[in-house]
Specification:
Length: about 180
């Protein structure tokens, strides 16, 4: 999958997630519902729509910034992750994407080389590489995620064969500190 199609996929997921948010906004702003129920609505209706298929996204910084923002229709302003975290007690969506991607990659790595999904995970695209910076492959993102959580610089596929070590490594993703976005005036 090219970076352009991933950008379009993320844009589409955010658009559908915003539409879902707007469709239940009257419930989320209602004083009749408890905060706990509003959190449950947000977690079960909106977030799964946005995160659908995120295990296969190869994110670049632009997409990470895009994912950290949802829109608030009342004031026509952006709600940043810090505000959403305060409102809904949720981890940063970029961390969740990385966590799900690493969990899925470990599962696929244990499947073996004969499976088609394994070839998709570690495969290289056919054809000539375009000019400029090389495109991020899914495997490149997995390698960066493993290095980010301190998994060493070894072969991540060998590391994934040990379920317990891999599970511990994947769980540390949720505890990472994700840098705050700089606001552009």
């Amino acid at each position: 999958m090219s970076e352009i199609s991933i950008q379009e996929e993320i844009k589409s997921r955010l658009k559908v997630g915003n539409a879902c948010y707007y469709s239940v906004q009257n419930l989320l702003s209602s004083s009749l519902l408890s905060k706990k129920l509003k959190i449950k609505i947000y977690r079960t209706l909106i977030l799964p729509v946005v995160r659908y298929g995120c295990e296969t996204w190869s994110l670049i910084l632009r997409e990470e910034r895009r994912l950290r923002v949802l829109r608030d229709n009342r004031e026509w302003r952006k709600l940043h992750n810090e505000e959403l975290s305060d409102l809904y007690s949720l981890p940063n969506i970029v961390r969740v994407v990385k966590w799900r991607r690493m969990r899925w990659a470990g599962h696929v790595a244990r499947m073996g080389e004969g499976r088609g999904v394994y070839r998709v995970l570690v495969g290289k695209a056919d054809g000539k590489r375009p000019l400029g910076r090389p495109r991020h492959r899914l495997e490149d993102n997995i390698k960066m995620d493993v290095q980010e959580v301190g998994g060493g610089f070894g072969n991540w596929r060998e590391l994934a064969q040990d379920r317990d070590r891999w599970r511990a490594l994947v769980s540390t993703v949720m505890n990472l500190r994700v840098p705050k976005m700089r606001r552009i005036s």
